[in-house]
Structures are given as C-alpha cells and as structure tokens.
Specification:
Distance between the termini: 40 Å
Order of helices and strands: HHHHHHHHHHH
Strand content: under 5%
Number of strands: 0
Number of helices: 11
Helix content: over 70%
C-alpha cells in the first residue's frame, strides 16, 4: 500500500473516531448544526446590505451561513475538541503511533469541516429552491473561498487551543477571533462606511476575504458595491482576498507548528 493511501486511511480512522465523540457530545453537535443556521437566518434584519449590493436575501443567507459555519462549526468546535483531547492525553497517545502530527490534526478537524460544508451545501440548495437565488456570477470562486477559509480557521483553532488551558476557558479565548472578524467582515454593514485606515484593517481580517470571495461568486459585486463585474473582472477582483487568505494560512501554519501543545501544562 502506498504511503499516501496509508496516510488517507489513518486520517479517515481518526476522523471516524472524532465523529463518534462529536455525536456523543450532543451540546457540541447542536452548537455546530443549529447555531450557524439560526444566526444566519437572523441576518434578515440587516437587509442584506453586507452580503450583496442588491439586497439579495438568498445570497446574504448563503454568505452569512458560510461565515457562521466557519466561525462556530469549524473554529469554535475545533478549539474545544483540541483542548479536550489534549487534556485527556488523547493527542499525546496518538503521537506514539504511526500517525503524523498533520494527520492527527486533519483527522480531528474532519468531522467539523464535514458539518460546516454540509450546512453550506444545504443552504445553497434552499437558497435556489425557496428563495430563488440566481445562478452564481462566478461559481469557481465558491470552492476557493471555502477551502482557503476552512484552512485559515482550522489553523486559528490550533493556535487558540495552544493558549486555552481548559475547555471552559475556550468561551473566553475564542471571543476575539469569533467577534472581531464577524463585526468587520462586511456582512453586518458595508465596509465603505468605515474610515479608510479602519477599513484596511477590516479587509486584512481572516473572515473578510472569505465574504468578499462569496460576494464575488454569488452576485459579481464587491464590498464597494457598484455595477456587476464580468467573469474576467471578478477573477481580478478576487486576487486581493485570495492573497490575504494565503497570508493567514502561512502565518497560521507557522504559529500552529511553533506553539501548538500536545499534552497538558503541568
């Protein structure tokens, strides 16, 4: 059996085990499944200003659910899971086997990612079938947003877990990465309302480029609003958010490798 196939089997086995643990933790499961959908539905009160320039509720719902799925189902869930497995010495024991560090983290993250992506897929079908969402302006940008956004928030979860001593403290340590990126993502209000220096900071936060890519993909517009971009122009406009996400991925990978802890502090 090739090494890549062996690696895939190890990740799949770890993912199955983590999925069983998540299924048994009904509170974490409900938070991952119900909370993102409920919060995305509440965005209707904002009138879609942040999600699309055309007040398209279908696009807003899908964009908003993507944000909450990444923040809650992926980021928050993974912080608590990683801290719990570390404090229970599960991660330490796993490292004594054949699995590499990357395989252990991938297996731990896989169920949360699967839940988040499944939610987004269901929301996409509902937006088309029920809300009459128009065909995406540039569908190729949707997987780019999901893959890069997921990678960033998985790595941020690993970094946050490193500074979180207990599962209970995760409610405190995750607050900055949960609320600051959400508030300044362009989802709740247009970033054009912000003064220029603060807008530059908002555009550099990890959730903002994901929202920008989803906006470009679904409606063909940017955070600045204006006319709809053509296919080629939307790819050009996507370059900046892709670079921001790539920078976050590189920084997150370095930080996780440098500071992630595999056993409790004594």
């Amino acid at each position: 059996m090739s090494s890549s196939r062996q690696s895939s089997h190890r990740v799949a086995a770890l993912a199955r085990a983590e999925g069983i643990l998540l299924w048994r933790n009904r509170l974490a499961l409900l938070n991952a499944v119900i909370l993102p959908a409920a919060l995305a539905g509440s965005l209707k009160s904002f009138g879609g200003l942040g999600a699309s320039g055309a007040h398209d509720f279908g696009a807003m719902l899908l964009t908003g659910l993507t944000a909450f799925a990444l923040l809650i189902a992926v980021y928050y869930n993974l912080v608590t899971a990683m801290v719990a497995r570390r404090e229970e010495l599960v991660l330490k024991r796993l490292r004594t086997g054949e699995a590499t560090d990357g395989e252990i983290l991938a297996g731990t993250a896989a169920p949360a990612i699967a839940i988040a992506w499944a939610q987004i897929a269901v929301a996409a079908v509902a937006a088309v079938a029920v809300l009459g969402l128009n065909p995406p302006a540039n569908a190729a940008l949707v997987p780019v947003a999901l893959i890069l956004g997921t990678a960033v928030f998985v790595l941020l979860a690993a970094v946050t877990a490193a500074v979180t001593r207990t599962v209970q403290l995760a409610q405190v340590t995750t607050m900055p990465a949960l609320w600051l990126p959400l508030v300044f993502s362009g989802l709740l209000f247009p970033l054009a309302m912000l003064p220029e220096p603060l807008r530059w900071v908002a555009e550099a936060l990890p959730l903002t480029p994901v929202m920008e890519l989803m906006r470009l993909a679904l409606t063909g517009t940017t955070a600045a609003g204006g006319h709809h971009l053509g296919l080629a122009a939307s790819f050009g406009a996507a370059a900046a958010p892709v670079l921001v996400l790539a920078a976050w991925t590189i920084a997150g990978a370095w930080a996780a490798r440098r500071w992630f802890r595999w056993e409790p502090r004594r």
